What does this fold into?
Amino acid sequence: MFRTVFRLPFRLIGIPLHVDLTFLVVLPLLAWAIGRNVEAYARLLGLGAGARALGDGWTPWLLGLGAALGLFASVVVHELGHAVVARGYGVRTRRIILWVLGGVAELEDIPRQRGAEAIVAVVGPIVSFALGLVCWSGLGIAPPDAHAARFILGYLALANVVLATFNLLPALPLDGGRALRSLLALRLSRRRATEVSAAVSRVLAVGVGLLGFATFNIFLLLIAFFIFIAVTAETQSVVLADTLRGISVRDLMTRDVRTVGASMLVSDVVHKMVTERHLAYPVIDPDDRVLGVVTVREVRSAEPAARVGNVMQREVAAIGPDATALDALDLMGRTGSGRLPVVDEDGRLRGLLTRTDLIRAVQVRALLDGAAAAAGAAGAARRAAGEEAEASLAPA
It folds into this structure.
């Protein structure tokens, strides 16, 4: 989902903070929207005579920017709440991302303890409610003539309550949807719990979309679209994880891997690509250690007489043969790579795993599960038919 992110030069409790480019679009728009309605917000917050003073000169726009930054800071604290509780269950947070609809804490895994996902999910809204209470308390003790500070505190108190309430909606991937799935998983399989939660989420998305259409509210339409798309991705991810569970990289990798050496000429690689119909090759040294990878992109822009070692990609995402297929899928998603060299502890090439290998494994497992279900149904039918036959022969 996030392909245009850049990392900020600091960490929060050891967690990297990333910003999606969509955030840089929505931040000034949100600041403008708040600034344009400063007086209306001030009256809503009960600031009285100070509302008129906030509309002078650059004041509303500066207040809009301050309130928008404060809101996104609140979102970061909300996500940190998820991260801290997840850490208590032994799950690390890979990063926190700010984007057009707020923030996302990317956990390395879902806590597997019973009900743990619900606890991790609910703590975010609890943090937001707490922030709202803190800001409202600050509004009560701020000097009456500190109009700007009172405005920002009042706005953040209201915004955090709205943020917490919105996130409690039982729709994936919102916190309420994750809590619902976790509670359903107490009785159902995780896959079935996700499917039920997804159905509820789609109904809510349609409802929010119809409300947005009826009120001409573009923000509600955007939320509805986000929920509908995100719940589909969430369901697919869970189904895929369930299908690949228990499969290792060793089970799926290709062992006979075509490679090239660092001293090979680009022109020879081009010929090799054409004849063997491969678009990329691992580059290895004489001891089979992976040095890099060369693809069509590198050879297309290189001189034919250049050496592969001078044009290859040196940063290569690799994985061990004992890693799980889920680990490989996660690594491909994070790096954007469609193929992973499989290396041993010494860095020697032992195989190659591609996205196609994972897809084929999913397809085969689906066929086997379907065949097993069909066989089970046929067996049940045969047993039922046998019972009926026995009943017809039994004496009255």
